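Worked Example 4.2. Read the sequence first, then its structure tokens.
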Amino acid sequence: MLKAMPIANQKDLQYATSTDFCQIFHQDMNSLYLLSLLLTGDHEKAEQCFVEGLENAVGRNRVFKEWARSWARRIIIQNALRMINPRSGDTNRAVNPLLVTGSDNTERTERPEIGAVVQLPAFDRFVYVMSVLERYSDHDCSVLLGSARRDVLAARARALQQMGRAAESYREHQLATNSDEAILHTSPLLALQAC
């Protein structure tokens, strides 16, 4: 027997306003821009995706306040999907790893974790970001990407393998360049063996 759902009180039914979305995009600017960057793989496209996301969010006010933050992230994903249009079997990769300016705006250092994601083929990158980082279900990923669930599963497996190889390569590079210091920071067991 089904139980009747309790009727929500008026406070629970408040919709997010344009001001609420402006605050969310201001407060979560770094994470929303990073999401845009990871999906698009390009600073200019990421900026465009972020700005259009804000415009879209402000224009849509029929979202419950409690859902506004997740709705903003979903809008970023939808904008990136429109901009990039990744397809299953797409092997296009970003050309260069991303570089992020240092705090003094003169030194440029590579962010290996961002570069590794950006180097994934477009479809694999979207699947990785959506399913692993944003925790979308396989079904939701396949619906949003317009592809079969098996393609999503295969893309995630490829992305995880490539990310694993990138992490191992980075670790080996760190060990080779800073052997003693890197060993001390990798694991307590290795640090003890080094003594």
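Now turn to a second chain, presented in exactly the same format:
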Amino acid sequence: MAKETMTPKERMQAAINLEKPDRVPVCPLVGLEAAAGLLGLNPGELHADPNKAIDALLRVFDEFGGWDTVNFFPNIALLYNLGGLAVKVPGKDLPDNYQLQFDEKETLKVEDYKKIADMGWRNFVVFEYISRISDIKPEDIPEAWKKLWALRIRCNSEWEKRGVALKMSTEYLHPFFTLSLNRSLLRFTEDLYYRPELVEAALEVMTEEMIEFGIRSCKRGGDTCIYVAEERAEAYFYPLKIFERFWLPYTKRMIEAWYSEGIVTWLHLDQCWDKNIPYLKELPRASAIIDLDGLTDIFAAKKVLRNHLCISSDVHPALLSLGKPEDVEAYCKKLIDKLGVDGGHILCSGCEVPHACKPENLRVMIETGKTYQLSKI
């Protein structure tokens, strides 16, 4: 039985700093759809009322015993639309019991790269783009941001009451991923090969803007971590020369800039990053949490990144939704033994906890993390 001698903040900081905590920090990524499934609620209803969505997330946290850190504000359409992404919403564009989906199509045109480079991404979204991807009018954007910020303040206040560490008021898709989703995978890939200078010009401006906005947002909200998601830059999709040119330098710049301000990056990496993991050693030590989804060999990644970057582990959605509690427990113990020997490990779900997660499987994941002693081998 693990004896707790640290607060969640101390425990998380130890893991990020590659020190051995009293027990492994636990962080299932419970989003809006998972909360709906676990509580028997309707996703469409939660998307229609963001405060109900926040209530659902808090209820899951309270009823399942809580955990150490939270990085989820409800991923509602307003959040994505203001960030420049089209989505299909349960209860509006999809049946009530569906999950929110990216509406990926060729919305961004070739000529828009220059507009982004000239105007900046946020000005482009406000003045050129948001009407293409949503029913929000440019004149309504200031009020929409006020609404979103009020929801964030309420959400962060509730997490603060529960003593969790690393609340995040800033969540991004990586600029590379953002362009890919808006341009479409096929067209964006063509651009990388046939119009690379246009892509680079847009990435340059988007990166600098994200750095500045992230620092300002963290200072305003008192936060110390920025969540950045990427799932298309890895060798699963592109040869390393594409990764080296269009992803790595911009990522390093963002993480280094934020780290110099005392901000850690939670780098969520979907798909298989086996060939790309060694490049992450170019990031400053203890500057990021590398969050893997189950398709990357996490044990090989640990060998490469040991004593350099913290790894957030990968209790897979299929295991949580289809497995038995004893299977979940066994895998969590394996992760703790193999990744948590010298610190630098957060016990986490592989990507978000799925809508179909069995309640007993989430409970055993949390309980195992809290009670299984770190291996002394």
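Notes for the reader: The chain has 17 helices and nine strands. The chain has a mean pLDDT of 93.
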